[in-house]
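Continuing the series of single-chain predictions for the mutant panel. This is the parent chain; the variants come on the following pages.
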Amino acid sequence: MQNQYEKQKQAKNKIGIVDTKKSVFHRVKQVSTYTLLAIWALINIFPIYYMFTFSLKDNGEIFGQNVIGLPQDWIWKNYEDALNVGNMGRFFINSFIVSGVTILIVIVFSIMATFALTRMIWRGRKVVNSTFMLGLTVPIHAAILPVFLLLSKLKMLDSYESLIIPYAAFGLAMAILIFTGFMQDIPKELDEAACLDGCNTWGILFKIILPLMKPAMATAGIFTFLSCWNELMFATIFISKSEYRTLTVGLQTLTGSYTTQWGPIGAALTLATLPTLVIYIFLSKRIQSSFVAGAVKG
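Parent structure:
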């Protein structure tokens, strides 16, 4: 009886030791994971921090006295110089006009094209879909010369249209790809029920499909916005007049105008980055839900 009791006690001790080891291992694993995630977060946040502090310093601090630390004197005048003297305000408006109109065109036309390709049955739709997808294989900058010659013959250079039309044309393929994966998951029984209730094709599109496509529309809108907002080559080649220049081209001219004053350049870069960060922060959940919904086939 005593031997049996001792064996049970030893077994419990062994179990306790194993549980302790598992607990210690779990804690070490958890601490290691959070440490790595914190380091990775700092690596990603540091460029934003550096750019912001860069924008509030003078040349002395930027080039040696205080490279990484917080500014000794917070020079907010750099932002005023970037907006007024560097004409960044006008470049901001131009970029918002071009990006906004391009997003509207891309979403409207790609929604209608995707609806026709996925919800209607007609001869040649697979060929048309493959033709749209070929747009993903063509680099946007490979078409600079033919697009320039076409716009020149149409007398559309130095205008908003010279950027909006190429941006929208190259953005359709990606938007259709995003919408196709999402729209295929919407049950077609909804279309049939809407038909029984008296909806025509346009009614099904605008009353049934569009309300369910909001996450995908947000995703396509952000992708289109980023490609338009950060594009440089088309904006440099197709636009020569100052009143139509976008932000990326304006940053180049600002660099030439302020070769010795880098604070206003940092301020302009910060202002140029801010809209992208704000839009992604507010719409990131919609992007994730769109990807998940488009990936799961029910």
